């Protein structure tokens, strides 16, 4: 903690510069553009449900993205669908984050039988195929509200990141400063909040982004088979109507291409963001081999990790060898 | 010991799935009985016995205590009784499953195996030759991974089937040309019909395997035993395969459970797009017809298949990673 | 040290290093090895000592081109004098020729208790690897026989040949590493902190084993460690390195009794002496700190 505070602004900027990889910038740009589209565009487009006789015609000046079979404006639908999909995605991602943090961190930190039960539960949920379960639940409930769908999606998608969080918590729990806090009599909730959570932030943010992708894909899947939220437009429901409206055989590409493209672009953008988060968590993965500077950093990091690993089971001699701070020490054992 | 623990876990997972299957219709709001009966009434008069059977299955039976119903349900499962389908009345659910399961098993099984192999091989090379063109392929596969399965399927149908007329639009085989048999005409026809669905599954699940393998390769290559192997003068090929890839693929194999869940979910929707006569397509028909017995039967069989596949992979894992064997 | 009575050293060189320079090509290039020169005689143990980061590992890895990018050998020469006559310009080797040279002429022993053995392959495969690569004509049975022989030679029960690294203790793993290094009867062995991760008793056993094998088989050793007192016991000559330069190279006796360079004196002074008076180490350690 003290180290973070003593960081000078320039070092902070350097760290930021390292984090701002091209993939992060592109990814964030794509996501931002789609979010803005979903937020703003619905105010400017025509009524997405207004039926017109001029059905199934391609892009024109009046309807930039053409019309559906019943003459509805595809652009207007896309705008509202973007808003709907994002809304579901964000709600689900938060729910999933909460669930995974609850089961992963609490179980990992407290250990004992609670951890056994929690991790058994997590693994069972993880192995049960999500979509079939969603389909069964979704088809029993006739009135599918936004919240219900969000909950269904959340309970089928939190387990993977709970497992990651648990293993991370386990390793942090055994670090010296956490042990010290424990011995000093800190309360468990305080240790989790102050000592453990900050260390889990990168993993949790990566988990959140992942949950967002999964949720949007999952919702699209459910809606595509007609089990989505009643009365809410999403990308999946647009594709559902497009397929049922013979868009494929009639060649109405302007109807089914845009919603899927939006999902793909958003998913791609989020993956790119996750890519750079991964790079922060595990610097060895950062890929820019042309810049030897990065190779050097990777080597340093690898060695530090190795030193950490080694500390557990080797004597003080070993520690001497790997934790020195001469400028050229890092290079030698690469 | 290790093995027993594993088996115990799969038993718990199986029990959880079976129990979920029992409680979902009973604890969710609304009674689907009327919807089912209305559907059946279209085909003719419903006799009281059938009515009663449907009530019991859907949990609308208020006379018997829940716990008694639960054991009756478990007993039914053990005797292989999953109820009667409404859509294909009065065919038993088990019979419908038996017809559609092979299609899905072959499609998903083959597609997953192909994807796994391609993913491991490409991932190995991408990690081994960092900074070459293979490495720049990685972001592209990430985008591909974000593409929804069914949308990719729609695009394939639109471009390859509708416009270019290279592949059939839907179905598992051409019933006017061949009939199901274990002979060349039928098999080749089935491969022809299954190509696009399989391609969809392969392309949209490849990215995950590839990326995971490549990242593990990068980590593994900085291990000390790689340096040892290099010092021993082993050929790069042997180092890459026996020392790097063999170790790097372990997490991919143990992560099979998560991936398979995604693939199966995706393939359900892919089947519906292609009207492929497998489990997924049948499930969606069951959904559209409020055929709850069929739906629940399919949910069970999908879950059991996923569990079985994972059990097999788990047992295999013990063979390829000696460290888990010792722990047992 | 009864072993030293009959010297295994023969007065002909096995390796000659001339003005070797290794640079890490990073943003601000780091000159990790500067103008290193030495000649190693057959059967001789040359210690490479120095603090962490002095370049000793880089130097040793450069001897058979095991250095990884961004490290680069910028100049100098490494010549290996084969016992069948004929000199090999090591830095000129590449590809298959380099791989054939590695291990058959120059074998290496890494910190075995760490991760230098592949955790998912058994000992038999990892020993056999050497033969399948360098002796392709050898039959499977012959490989197995030879592997067992090697294990016996280093004091590992041959029946453990099917074991995986995690089933062996740190000392056993290091013995397996040494057995592997002996497989092709190399003329030179590079040992990189071979005993560092082991406890003191096992450390001693391994050292004795190395001395015994050297006596029997007559290979030369480049022994890298930061533990100067240990080197004083096992090495014939010792090179002290600092900031990439060999600042002193002399016999163990001379280095101990008459260190010429002040840094060598600091290095010798920074280890506690069992016979010294109480407080010696604290003072000596303080001196070192001050000298920096």
TrEMBL record, chain B:
<dbReference type="InterPro" id="IPR035906">
    <property type="entry name" value="MetI-like_sf"/>
</dbReference>
<dbReference type="Pfam" id="PF00528">
    <property type="entry name" value="BPD_transp_1"/>
</dbReference>
<dbReference type="InterPro" id="IPR000515">
    <property type="entry name" value="MetI-like"/>
</dbReference>
<feature type="transmembrane region" description="Helical">
    <location>
        <begin position="7"/>
        <end position="24"/>
    </location>
</feature>
<feature type="transmembrane region" description="Helical">
    <location>
        <begin position="149"/>
        <end position="170"/>
    </location>
</feature>
<protein>
    <submittedName>
        <fullName>Peptide ABC transporter permease</fullName>
    </submittedName>
</protein>
<dbReference type="GO" id="GO:0005886">
    <property type="term" value="C:plasma membrane"/>
</dbReference>
<keyword id="KW-0472">Membrane</keyword>
<keyword id="KW-1133">Transmembrane helix</keyword>
<keyword id="KW-0812">Transmembrane</keyword>
<comment type="similarity">
    <text>Belongs to the binding-protein-dependent transport system permease family.</text>
</comment>
<feature type="transmembrane region" description="Helical">
    <location>
        <begin position="248"/>
        <end position="274"/>
    </location>
</feature>
<dbReference type="GO" id="GO:0055085">
    <property type="term" value="P:transmembrane transport"/>
</dbReference>
<feature type="transmembrane region" description="Helical">
    <location>
        <begin position="294"/>
        <end position="320"/>
    </location>
</feature>
<feature type="domain" description="ABC transmembrane type-1">
    <location>
        <begin position="101"/>
        <end position="313"/>
    </location>
</feature>
<keyword id="KW-0813">Transport</keyword>
<feature type="transmembrane region" description="Helical">
    <location>
        <begin position="190"/>
        <end position="211"/>
    </location>
</feature>
<feature type="transmembrane region" description="Helical">
    <location>
        <begin position="103"/>
        <end position="128"/>
    </location>
</feature>
């Amino acid at each position: 903690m003290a180290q973070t505070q003593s960081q000078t602004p320039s070092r902070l900027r350097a760290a930021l510069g390292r984090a701002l990889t091209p993939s992060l910038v592109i990814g964030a740009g794509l996501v931002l553009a789609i979010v803005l589209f979903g937020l703003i565009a619905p105010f400017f487009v025509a009524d997405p449900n207004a039926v017109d006789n001029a059905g199934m015609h391609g892009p024109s000046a009046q309807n930039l993205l053409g019309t559906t079979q019943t003459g509805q404006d595809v652009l207007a639908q896309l705008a509202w669908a973007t808003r709907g999909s994002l809304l579901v995605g964000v709600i689900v991602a938060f729910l999933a984050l909460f669930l995974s943090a609850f089961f992963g961190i609490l179980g990992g930190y407290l250990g004992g039988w609670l951890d056994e039960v929690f991790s058994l539960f997590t693994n069972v949920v993880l192995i049960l195929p999500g979509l079939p379960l969603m389909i069964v639940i979704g088809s029993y409930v006739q009135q599918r509200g936004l919240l219900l769908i969000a909950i269904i999606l959340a309970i089928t998608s939190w387990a993977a990141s709970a497992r990651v969080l648990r293993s991370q918590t386990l390793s942090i729990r055994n670090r010296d400063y956490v042990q010290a806090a424990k011995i000093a009599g800190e309360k468990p909730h305080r240790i989790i909040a102050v000592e453990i959570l900050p260390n889990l932030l990168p993993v949790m943010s990566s988990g959140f982004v992942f949950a967002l992708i999964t949720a949007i894909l999952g919702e699209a899947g459910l809606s595509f088979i007609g089990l989505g939220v009643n009365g809410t437009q999403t990308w999946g429901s647009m594709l559902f109507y497009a397929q049922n409206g013979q868009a494929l055989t009639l060649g109405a590409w302007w109807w089914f291409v845009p919603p899927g493209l939006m999902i793909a672009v958003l998913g791609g953008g989020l993956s790119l963001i996750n890519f750079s988060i991964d790079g922060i968590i595990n610097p060895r993965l950062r890929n820019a081999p042309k810049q030897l500077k990065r190779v050097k950093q990777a080597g340093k990091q690898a060695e530090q990790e190795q030193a950490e690993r080694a500390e557990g089971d080797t004597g003080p001699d070993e520690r001497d060898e790997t934790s020195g701070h001469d400028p050229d020490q890092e290079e030698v054992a690469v | 010991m290790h093995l027993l623990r594993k088996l115990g876990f799969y038993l718990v997972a199986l029990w959880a799935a079976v129990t979920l299957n029992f409680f979902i219709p009973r604890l969710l709001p609304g009674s689907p009985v009327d919807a089912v009966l209305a559907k059946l009434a279209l085909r003719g008069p419903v006799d009281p016995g059938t009515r009663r059977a449907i009530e019991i299955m859907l949990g609308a039976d208020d006379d018997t205590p829940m716990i008694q119903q639960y054991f009756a349900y478990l007993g039914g499962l053990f005797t292989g009784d999953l109820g009667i389908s409404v859509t294909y009345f009065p065919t038993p659910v088990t019979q419908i499953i038996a017809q559609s399961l092979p299609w899905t098993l072959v499609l998903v099984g083959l597609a997953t195996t192909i994807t796994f192999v391609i993913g491991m091989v490409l991932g190995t090379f991408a990690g081994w030759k960092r900074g070459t063109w293979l490495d720049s392929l990685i972001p592209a596969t990430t985008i591909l991974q974000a593409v929804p399965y069914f949308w990719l399927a729609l695009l394939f149908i639109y471009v390859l089937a509708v416009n270019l007329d290279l592949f059939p639009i839907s179905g598992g085989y051409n019933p006017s040309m061949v009939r199901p048999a274990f002979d060349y005409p039928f098999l080749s026809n089935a491969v022809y019909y299954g190509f696009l669905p399989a391609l969809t599954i392969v392309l949209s699940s490849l990215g995950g395997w590839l990326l995971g393998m490549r990242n593990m390769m990068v980590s593994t290559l900085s291990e000390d035993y790689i340096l040892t192997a290099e010092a021993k003068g082993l050929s790069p090929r042997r180092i890459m395969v026996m020392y790097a890839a063999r170790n790097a693929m372990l997490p991919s194999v143990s992560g099979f459970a998560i991936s398979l869940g995604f693939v199966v979910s995706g393939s359900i929707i892919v089947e519906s797009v292609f009207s492929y006569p497998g489990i997924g397509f049948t499930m969606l028909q069951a959904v559209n017809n409020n055929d709850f017995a069929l739906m629940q039967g399919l949910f069970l069989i999908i879950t059991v298949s996923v569990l079985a596949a994972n059990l097999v992979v788990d047992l295999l894992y013990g063979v390829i990673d000696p460290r888990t064997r010792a722990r047992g | 040290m009864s072993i030293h009575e009959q010297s295994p050293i023969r007065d002909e060189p096995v390796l000659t290093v001339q003005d070797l320079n290794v640079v890490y090509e990073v943003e601000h290039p780091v000159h990790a090895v500067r103008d290193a020169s030495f000649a190693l005689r057959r059967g001789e143990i040359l210690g490479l000592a120095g603090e962490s980061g002095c370049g000793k590992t880089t130097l040793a890895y450069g001897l058979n081109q095991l250095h990884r990018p961004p490290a680069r050998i910028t100049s100098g020469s490494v010549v290996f004098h084969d016992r069948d006559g004929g000199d090999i310009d090591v830095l000129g080797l590449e590809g298959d020729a380099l791989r054939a040279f590695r291990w058959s002429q120059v074998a290496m022993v890494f910190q075995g208790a760490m991760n230098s053995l592949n955790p998912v392959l058994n000992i038999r495969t990892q020993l056999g690897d050497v033969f399948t690569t360098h002796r392709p004509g050898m039959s499977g049975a012959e490989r197995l026989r030879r592997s067992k022989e090697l294990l016996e030679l280093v004091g590992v029960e041959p029946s453990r040949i099917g074991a995986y690294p995690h089933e062996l203790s740190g000392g056993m793993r290091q013995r397996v590493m040494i057995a592997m290094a002996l497989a092709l009867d190399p003329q030179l062995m590079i040992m990189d902190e071979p005993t560092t991760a082991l406890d003191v008793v096992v450390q001693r056993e391994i050292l004795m084993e190395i001395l015994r094998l050297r006596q029997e088989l007559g290979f030369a050793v480049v022994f890298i460690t930061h533990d100067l007192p240990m080197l004083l016991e096992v090495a014939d000559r010792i090179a002290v390195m600092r900031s990439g330069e060999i600042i002193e190279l002399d016999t163990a006796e001379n280095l101990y009794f008459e260190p010429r360079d002040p840094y060598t004196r600091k290095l010798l002074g920074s280890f506690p002496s069992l016979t010294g008076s109480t407080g010696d180490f604290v003072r000596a350690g303080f001196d070192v700190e001050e000298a920096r």
